[in-house]
Amino acid sequence: MFNFKQHEVGLILFGLDQSLQQGNTMYIRQMGKPDMDFLKNVMELESYSENKSEGGDIFDALEQSLITIDEYVKKKKYEKKIYVFTAGCGKTDYNSQQLEDLVSKIQQVNAKINIIAFDFLKKYNPENEDLDLELTKLNEDDDTQTKVQNLNQKLLLAIKREIPSQVQFYPSSIALLIQKQFRSKGYAPRVKYRGTFEISNFLKFDIQMYTKTSEDKLPGLKQYSQTVEFDKNEKSGLIEKEVLRYVQEDPNMQPVDKENVGKAYHYGKQLVPLSNIMEQEIITNRGKREGFSVQFFERKYC
């Protein structure tokens, strides 16, 4: 659900047995940029599959998510999205007034709510252009669903009618197809060179050369001392690199101060010192390309 490095995500598991956590909501991951720990937390969700709870309160989960995002983002300009994966089996204690307050909270936080339904909201087709017809279907009981699912369906419908642009329903079959587009990157490969590669008179084959399309650069790694106790604080045990310069002919390898180190370039077999002014001029004119024509004439033509 994230395809950019600057995305920040959180993960809340709701509908747990209250003996596992105070209340029925567990914060698997607080808000932050996704990393390997986040991936590990997602993979460990399977360990909660044996939870005996019938399901969580969708509306309580929505409210907790809204509060978490609002407290984290505050006044920063973020695009806020909430994805709720649910089968709609959890009972709710929310009354009409609480639902109205929830609608107001969604409007205040200005978040987009995406309900991903598993064996739930099955009659709803988000691809149908006639939205009123699809919403009317949700107002009717579905014989393949339980009473709790039908009730949750109608309560979600009431919220969507209030704020249709901020609440979307997706059956799991359609949602998974939509999510695939976040996992891929498309490139149009262009051939830079096309020709025959000849190794010998008897060994030839056609080749095509492509330019580089994409490169993911890994972040620079920090070095830490293993002689001190490890601490998560980024400045604890950090090793700073220091370059020591010395003259190669010096048997004692006495360090040379940085102020006494100069730069030079090869000109033929000679080494020509490079002054700071010349170095600055080279840096300034690095992008410029110039050509010179040197001509010689016999003396009688001068």
Task: Describe this entry's structure for a reader.
Its main location: nucleus. It is found in: Nucleus. This is Ku70 ku80 beta-barrel domain protein. It holds the Pfam family Ku. With 302 residues, the protein is an alpha/beta fold. It has a domain of 174 residues: von Willebrand factor, type A domain (Rossmann fold), CATH 3.40.50. It contains seven helices and eleven strands. It has a three-stranded parallel sheet with strand order 3-4-5. A hairpin with an 8-residue loop joins strand 8 and strand 9. Helix 2 runs parallel beside helix 3. The termini are far apart. About 2% of the residues have low confidence.
Relative helix content: 25-40%
What is the element string, with H for helices and E for strands? Answer: EEHHEHEHHEHEEEEEEH
Shape descriptor reads: elongated
Largest sheet: 3 strands, parallel
CATH class of the domain at 9-182, anyone?
Alpha Beta
The name of the CATH architecture of the domain at 9-182 is 3-Layer(aba) Sandwich
InterPro entries: DNA_bd_Ku70/Ku80, SPOC-like_C_dom_sf, vWFA_dom_sf
Protein name: Ku70 ku80 beta-barrel domain protein
Domain Ku: 203-286
GO molecular function, one term: telomeric DNA binding
